[in-house]
Amino acid sequence: MSEGDKALRVAVLGCGSVGSQVVRLLTEQSADLAARAGARLELAGVAVRRLDAKREVEVPEHLLTTDAMDLVTRDDVDLVVEVIGGIEPARGLILAALENGASVVSANKALLAEDGATLFEAADKSARDLYYEAAVAGAIPILRPLRESLTGDKVTRVLGIVNGTTNFILDKMHTSGAGFAEALEEAQELGYAEADPTADVEGFDAAAKAAILASLAFHTRVTAGDVHREGIAEVSAADVASAREMRSVVKLLAICELRDGAVSARVHPAMIPDTHPLASVREAYNAVFVESEAAGQLMFYGPGAGGAPTASAVLGDLVTAARNLLSGSRGAGESAYAALDVLPMGETVTRYHVGIDVQDRAGVLATVAAAFAEHGVSIQTVRQEGRGDDAQLVVVSHRATDAQLSATVEHLRNMDIVREVTSVMRVEGEND
Amino acid sequence: MSEGDKALRVAVLGCGSVGSQVVRLLTEQSADLAARAGARLELAGVAVRRLDAKREVEVPEHLLTTDAMDLVTRDDVDLVVEVIGGIEPARGLILAALENGASVVSANKALLAEDGATLFEAADKSARDLYYEAAVAGAIPILRPLRESLTGDKVTRVLGIVNGTTNFILDKMHTSGAGFAEALEEAQELGYAEADPTADVEGFDAAAKAAILASLAFHTRVTAGDVHREGIAEVSAADVASAREMRSVVKLLAICELRDGAVSARVHPAMIPDTHPLASVREAYNAVFVESEAAGQLMFYGPGAGGAPTASAVLGDLVTAARNLLSGSRGAGESAYAALDVLPMGETVTRYHVGIDVQDRAGVLATVAAAFAEHGVSIQTVRQEGRGDDAQLVVVSHRATDAQLSATVEHLRNMDIVREVTSVMRVEGEND
Known about the structure:
2 copies of one chain form a homodimer. The first copy, chain A, has 432 residues and is α/β, with parallel strands linked by helices.
């Protein structure tokens, strides 16, 4: 570290939509960043896949390199920004950077959620910072508040809308009545969804973020593989309409809960009441709702993706890491002392909204209610819609384990008087 | 500091609604706090005004003292929590604690907003932390996000609902149509407003918070005296109804803006559109809406007051200060390098909503419009309500300086055809 002239040198790995904004801000805001960090932040180099690719920002040619490993192991690099994503080569590069004495800022949710432990261990060993605010909910400050602001409190639940693509699709289905396929197509046309939307639509992206949120909120270690995951491809226009009748909306939620000393971490679509603060999160925005024992209910809202917003989070981490390097200290590392078990989905406690096409016979309601009772599930409300061949029951249960609830649905599917179970969706956002 | 047995000793000044919750959490959560801080946090003493007062928490008798100065200058005190409020003796105690080598956590918005500079200087001199997250918006993490998470970005505007009492009153006026006096009375009955509501209702509390927010957001120094302040006592049921017709709500806002390299910091009631995220902040909740160049629009929402929520913020600061003490480092101190001028209110740029009782004469609209034009104010919309003797014009202006707008209103008041200017309110929350 070149402390003499108060400059720190920054290597940026990746120059796509986030990396190019990081480079732009490092240049345009350099005076402010220097005043805040206590040293100039100089661009040491930018690792790219192809030297001649078109970029959103102009990078002096001598700073570009295709040899990322060479860049992060140079003697004159103090800080490394990793915005290439994916598992490898990102993991190898971050480990090499930390071993080389650099502090690292990453936006890599997939890597952090799959193998954060290896990275945190390396950061501890080198006594360097590994910050990753940009990995969850883009520009929204949520990881630092969980790690520092709420560290004197006991967080009990985190409900997050942490994937902008799926929120855009569900919001579109709500406002226009469109089905999933049509809403996805519009999201793709507008650039909110990728050509292959699997990672977003199937909940992989949200599950990685849920793992990171649960780990920080509960001081434990949760990996992406621990997170139960269901996407939104099965959400129908009828589900959305049914939610509306209940004065609710369907959202894809990342849910992290403490229950009986264990953690439940899951991603699935759920109905939440219109009055819940998360219900008003529209379009591609993200929000994270946190419940804690002393603070009560908090919400953090903002853009969850995009080059400039994500770069804002990266630079916040970068300035903080720079301050720490200059003062010879480091921020809080991983806090996983609680080492909690992860609950299997079947033991998670939740509520179901079930739509059932039934034969219009006397006693049908009693028979259906008996099926719920047989599995120990009590019913909160039941509503009958239509008559004759169009008879439809809508049942909302009280809280029960997911195993009890799914066994009930299985049971219903096998009953003679049930023509079809038309909709099954969990209900969240209400107090126990 | 007693680093040998990994314990840090905490003095708490004040044992009212916040102090008692701090003491309770220090006891009840001690194992978790120790794991997170890296050392046990032991209660060294609690300074109170009267030893025999009734308290919400039981404090061992030998830990109670009425001599706060003696407590903060003891050798075995590492961390001091100041939750007594007011200017003196709080200032003297904090200065003594810092000089004695303790790090300090305060919830004292009035003191920070009036004389933060003296305190920050003392903290720098002693190389200790002075944290005060609880001073603004209670449990909501907003100061640390501004100081750290957004430090790589350029914040351009902060709009805050930072006083729960006034938000409760205005929300009540909206939902019930009640007038100010009636809503205040209900707030007092429910414990949301004090018997003497001046500090809340006249905007003093919000102005102190605006000064703190502006200082952190813009890396400059703004004191409570720099903040233009108008309360909500003049807000009428008619104003609220008029806002509703515009699909807006009236909120008391703390507004901090960068404009032409200077800061505008002000507190006043304003109409904001229903679609703005701040519009849905109900009852006594607080929220801070932040606009920045790279991140875009963020919002932080939660309970702005109350013993336990405020204690959550205090303990987050306390654990962070403890970690820093243990590692021999400190967090970021005051950042006021930008040293910006504060704009006088007259130079602030805003929009006005003006209700005018006019005589029903031909040409009245043209005459009124000419008055606006004479002061260089252009009109966005004008609506005529009623007829004959009840004729009323509602004018919403485009953006202009507050001086131009208030001169226009003065002019209107002196016009023959104007019976009365019935309502003047600023309009915020829309883009320029």
